[in-house]
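As promised in the previous annual report, we have extended the structural survey to additional targets. Below is the entry for AarF/ABC1/UbiB kinase family protein.
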Amino acid sequence: MSALSETPKQSLEYLSNAASPQSSTRPDKGKSAYRWNRENYSRNRRRFDIWVFVLRLLFEFWRDSKPWSYPGGYTEEKRQKRRKAQAAWIRESLLELGPTFIKVGQLFSTRGDLFPIEYVEELSKLQDRVPAFSYEQVAAIVKEDTGKSITELFRAFDPTPLAAASLGQVHKAQLNSGEEVVAKVQRPGLKKLFTIDLAILKRIAQYFQNHPRWGKGRDWLGIYDECCRILWEETDYLNEGRNADTFRRNFREYDWVRVPRVYWRYTSPRVLTLEYVPGIKISHYEALEAAGLDRKLLAKLGAEAYLQQLLNDGFFHADPHPGNIAVSPDGKMIFYDFGMMGKIQANVREKLMDTLFGIAEKNADRVMQSLIELGALAPTGDVGPTRRSIQYMLDNFMDKPFEEQSVTAISDDLYELAYDQPFRFPATFTFVMRAFSTLEGVGKGLDPEFNFMEVAKPFAMDVMTNSSASNGNSIFNELGRQAAQVSSTALGLPRRIEDTIEKLERGDIRVRVRSIESDRILRRISTIQLLTNYTLLVAAFTLSATILLVNDKVWWAAIAALAAGGLGFTLFRLMRRLDRFDRMP
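The corresponding C-alpha cell record, generated without further manual editing, is:
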C-alpha cells in the first residue's frame, strides 16, 4: 500500500479537528500508558478507576464546603484558588479516564448553571490528548464496516494519522478516481467502553439526584439522558455525514462558505470519508496575514455565518471553536466536524421573542414566565428570590447600549447568577452561549475592535421585525395585549378573592411564618447541647488516657489522648460559635 507524499504545511490546518472537537494536530506519543487504551484493560479495573475518581471528587466537594478546612481561616479568595486547583485536577483526571469522560467534561463546560465558574472555565480547556491506534486496527475496522479492504477502496492511504482524538483519528487518502480525501475512522472498542462507562455514570447520576443538597432542584437523570443522546450521536458517522450535507445545503447560496463533501460510497457507521479541504486555521493570525487575507472581514464573516445558522436556519454548529473553522487561500470560511449540531424548534423561537420583549420592558415577571415556558427555569414555591435575581440582571445589563455589550461577560454573569438557583438552561441554550463566547474570542483575536453584538444587531432587528409582522406583535398590538391582560385581571379579581376565602374555610391554605429570632434561639440551644456532649466526651477520654498511662499502657493512652485532643478542638469551635450567637443583636 503506497503512502501519500508529505502534505504542505498549510494543508495540515485541516487536521486541526477533523477527528473530533479539540483534537491535537499530531497524536500524543507520550500518553500511550493510558489504561483505557490497553487491550487487556478489564471491566473491574475500569470500574475501580472510575469510582476512585468519583469518591475523591465527592470528598473535594465536601471539603470545599467546610470553612474550617481553609488554613488561616475562610476567605472567598482562598475558596476560588482551591476551586481552580480542583478544576485542574478534574480536567487531568477526565483525560486519564478516556473518551467517555473527555466528552462528558466538554459537555459540562457549557453548564455554568450546574457547576462553579472555576470548573466551567477549566473544563472548556479540555483537550483530546490521546494516543493514536495502529494502522492494523484501522484496516480491520474499514474491512469490517465496509466489506472491502483499504487497498480496494483507496488508491493510496497514509498509515500515519493526521490527527488522533478520543473518538477517532483521521488519515489522508486518495480515491481510485484520483480525488484526495480524508478518512475518519472510529476508535476500536469505543462503543463497548461507552456502554460500561454510561452504566456507571447512571448510578452516579442517581446518587446525585437523591442527594439532599446536590439533588435539590436538579434533574441529574435528565442531564444523564441528554449526555447519552449526544455521545451516541457522535459515534454514528452516518449521522455526522447527514449533518454535513444539511449544513452544506443551508449555505449553498453563500459563495464565501465551504463545507467538505461526503463520499457516501466510502462511508459507514464507523468510517466517514470527506473531501480534503485544506485551509488556514482561523486562530493562526500570522498565517492569515501572510496569505494576504483581511482579518477584520474574516471576523465579521465568521459571526454572520453563525447568526445565519442560528436565526435563519435553526440548525447550527454546536462547537465552533477555532479548530473547527479554517480559511481557504481565497478567503472562504471552511467548517469541519459536524458530529455535534444543535436545532432550534419553531415554537422555541416564539418563546424567545417573548423573552426579548420582557427584557426590553425590564419586566422581570414576563421574563420569568417565558423562561419557565422555555424550560430554562424550574418553577418553585417561592419565586421571589428568582424574580429579584432577574430584575437585578435586567437593571445592570440594560443600562448599556446593545452594541457595547459583551457576550462573554453576559454569559459569565448568567452562569454566576444561575449557579445554585432554579435556572435549568437547556442544552441548546448552553451550546449557543458557548458558541457566542467562542466566536467573540476568535473575532477579537482577528480584530481587536470586533464587537459581536454590533454584528448581531441587524440580525436581531430583522428577527424582531419578521416576528412582529407574522405574529402581530407590533407596538399597538402589544399595547392592546397588555390592556386586555389588565382588564382580564380586574374582572377576575372578585372571583379570585372568593376562591381564596373558600380555600381558607376548607383549610386548604397553610400559612408558614418564620421567626428569625426563634430560629436563632433554637440554634443556640442546639449548640449548647452539643457543647455539653463534647465536654463529657473530652472529660471521659482525658480520664481514660490518665488511667491507661498510670497502668503503663502508653500506646492506648496516646490514642485516648489524641481522641480527647480532636474532640477538644471541636469543643473550642463550638464555644466560638456560641460566643457569636451571644454577640448577635
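Residues 14 and 278 are 5 Å apart (CA to CA). Confidence is low (pLDDT under 50) at residues 1-32. These points will be discussed at the next consortium meeting with the crystallography subgroup.
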